[in-house]
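Sample 3 of the quickstart, ligand calcium ion:
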Amino acid sequence: GASARVSISPFKENSTVIVAHRGASGYAPENTLDSYRIGVRMQADYIEIDLRLTKDGELIAMHDETVDRTTNGTGLIKNMTLTEIKALDAGSWFNDKNQAYGSEEYVNEKVPTLKEIFETFGKDTRYLLETKAPEDYPGLEEKMLKLVEDFGLTRHIAVQSISKESLKKIRKRNKDVPLFQLFWYKNPASISSARLREISGYANGIGANFLRIDESYVRKVKNAGLLLYPYTVNYPLNMEMALRWGVDGVHTDYPDRLMKMIPEG
Ligand code: G3P
Ligand code: CA
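Result:
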């Protein structure tokens, strides 16, 4: 727990924030209602959702820019209508790849829209929304915030992006939503004080790939008054290390593994 923690809702918070990465995506096909449902059941603080826009401007949950890996179809999301995407099977690939947790229930699972996700879970969870490649999807931020407001979920979301322009756009429209600047480090992570100061001007925290960070990076980010949520930490030994370093939250495909390690919120 850090002094910089943002308290964003009456929702019970774990002492280290658990983010169910693409839902509990170790147990069910990522970014589907099933993976989110398991994440909520495991009492993750957030379910993480990758957002993109279809050709007809609908917000959907999908990580990649094409449907190829996580459905039985092919093609770019931005060239497909929601109807075309809804015709795809977004679950069977998981069964083919993941014998341990595969299930008949996942066969012909559909790609969810953000609206369907909000309708399903409402205020039972919080949502860490990621704007993916926002330069490819004009209007994504506005549509996302509009939907969040329509559902009265402003205090139930946080937003993350690799794009600082996207985060700044959101900050301009809404001062309350916690924002996270994402980094993906190819080499051992380092960050300058100037960059940390800049980020403090438009965001509340940082998300960075766990395997490239170390304790001194964690300290530096925290000393700058920013939250740090490393991703994606799936092995218990790595979870223990992240907790020892004092990170504020952890993205994981296996929220139950992390839950076992942290004291009651
Ligand atoms: O949660 C951080 C993480 O989602 C960023 O990486 O590729 O899984 O979207 P990615
Ligand atoms: Ca993501």
